[in-house]
Amino acid sequence: xxxxxxxxxxxxxxxxxxxxxxxxxxxxxxxxxxxxxxxxxxxxxxxxxxxxxxxxxxxxxxxxxxxxxxxxxxxxxxxxxxxxxxxxxxxxxxxxxxxxxxxxxxxxxxxxxxxxxxxxxxxxxxxxxxxxxxxxxxxxxxxxxx
Length: 146
Hints:
This protein is mostly helical and 146 residues long.
């Protein structure tokens, strides 16, 4: 026999507490009489013009801020004097400036063989070439004498 069954057999199912007749009906009426009246729901007011337009104004301000940031970053990058009206012509004009042209162009009168000779004459060993260009020879080519 379970412990619960033993307790029910000894003490029974009925507890020592009882509720007076009609208690729950009278308590409900008494509590309702003490509560204040339920307030009426607030009347719905129409939205003002600013409340309707505000999300669009914020969206436009966000895009204007992004455009300004991009403009500032573009100017700070050193390419600020270029126009996006016709980029290829502007870039070509920028490349034609002497300080830029010297960096990005090769003399056209040098052949590939002459260029190879000029670069290879600048190095006495492959180790110098590896250190300058960060190049690592594969193990199978390291045994070759240059």
